[in-house]
Design a protein that fits this description.
mainly alpha, about 45% helix, disordered N terminus, two-stranded antiparallel ribbon, binds iron/sulfur cluster, 14 helices
Length: about 300
């Protein structure tokens, strides 16, 4: 069994192939029960088994499939099976429409902040050291549907644990969130049993650096300069050109962007007296880190010269 990005549980590919090709009703029922056990375990409600079995047996989707399974073609069985898994998930969530503070959502990544969360910074719940910026045009994987693409507009997020990737405020021994009473809006809207709330929130205005840095003119000017000179879209355009033309001279342009990014970061710490830990909020992630999304990394040779090399 394995879990896909939308939380549905599936038998592994070989087991599913066998199930769809054999077409035996007994195996279908056994497979459905097995999948249900996995869903219940995933949602931490193993003891809801009898309740969900009773409900699924009354459900039209299950009843029709149970009656017609042997007559269907394997491709149709496969499609109907997916529908049944979604239905099982919905029914199981219907028996548990509340948060268990299991922390599973805190492991899927940290929340993006909204203007309503600005007061968490003014009250000192969060500080510039615990958040970071994803700038417009950065290559990212969208949590909402797992898609890869360029970020259409700036986001500010809480930092994540470097190895485990969960939100830094997740504490295993504290029943999950360590700032539960002050958690950001996204976490308050998060309801795994009703994902539509989060989908709606995703369309709403996000917090940006300009909401938070209103009065520091020197810093705001530096942000403008950095955004213009070290725009992640320039990086994307350069790698697209490299891919399309194979012109290795593009790598020098990329290295130049990386050098400018590094120089501006040094300026902000040394001349504007900001801490290193604040830089990923003030200037976004370093370009030297972002190039890894394009399968490249920077290496220094024995003469101290930097090169971009494949990260494979
Ligand atoms: S909302 Fe998050 S913490 Fe609450 S039950 Fe769902 S996955 Fe667990
Ligand atoms: S702030 Fe709290 S609830 Fe939100 S993702 Fe982090 S640990 Fe989870």
């Amino acid at each position: 069994m394995k879990q896909n990005s939308k939380h549905s549980i599936q038998l592994d590919a070989a087991e599913l192939r066998d199930l769809f090709h054999s077409g035996k009703r007994k195996e279908f029922v056994a497979g459905m029960r097995l999948a249900l056990r996995q869903i219940l375990a995933k949602l931490h409600v193993e003891d809801h088994y009898d309740q969900v079995i009773t409900l699924i047996k009354q459900d039209t989707c299950y009843r029709e499939l149970n009656n017609t399974w042997e007559e269907l073609k394997p491709a149709v069985r496969s499609q109907k099976w997916q529908e049944l898994m979604e239905r099982l998930l919905q029914i199981t969530y219907g028996t548990r429409p509340y948060c268990l503070r299991c922390g599973d959502c805190c492991h899927l990544g940290s929340p993006s902040l909204h203007p309503e969360d600005a007061e968490l910074l003014s009250r000192g719940v969060l500080s510039a050291r615990q958040i970071y910026t994803l700038r417009r045009g950065e290559p990212v994987k969208f949590n909402i549907d797992g898609r890869l693409g360029a970020l259409p507009s700036e986001l500010i997020k809480i930092k994540q644990h470097q190895e485990k990737h969960h939100c830094i405020y997740y504490g295993k021994n504290q029943r999950g969130c360590t700032i539960y009473d002050n958690r950001p809006l996204q976490c308050r809207v998060q309801a795994c049993w009703a994902p539509e709330g989060l989908e709606k929130l995703w369309q709403q205005e996000k917090l940006t650096r300009r909401h938070l840095i209103k009065e520091d003119q020197d810093l705001l000017e530096m942000l403008e300069v950095h955004d213009e000179r070290c725009d992640p879209r320039k990086l994307d355009a350069a790698f697209t050109r490299l891919h399309d033309t194979g012109d290795l001279a593009v790598l020098d342009e990329v290295l130049d962007l990386l050098r400018q990014d590094t120089a501006i970061r040094a300026f902000v710490t040394q001349k504007l007296n900001r801490e290193d830990e604040e830089l990923n909020f003030l200037l976004g992630r370093p370009l030297v880190e972002i190039v890894r999304a394009y399968g490249m990394k920077v290496e220094k040779d024995e003469n101290g010269v930097y090169h971009l090399v494949s990260d494979q």
